[in-house]
Amino acid sequence: MELYSLLREFADSWALLLLTLIFVGVFLWVFRPGSRAIHDDIANSIFRNEKQPAAEGADQAPAMRPAKEA
C-alpha cells in the first residue's frame, strides 16, 4: 500500500471521527450550563467605559500595567 492510500484511508475514517468529536465537544463546552454570565460579560466588555474613560490602567491586564514608582 502506498503512502497516499494509507493517509487517505486514515483521513476518511479516524481523522473524520476525531474532528467530529472535537466539534461536538467544543459545541457542548460553549453551551454548558452556567456559562451564560461569562459570555454576557465578554460580549458587553466593549461598552464598560462608554460614559467616561476608565482610570489609567484599569482595563489592562496586570502584565500590561505600568510599574508603580516607589
TrEMBL record:
The chain crosses the membrane at residues 13-31. This is Cbb3-type cytochrome c oxidase subunit 3. Keywords: Membrane, Transmembrane, Transmembrane helix.
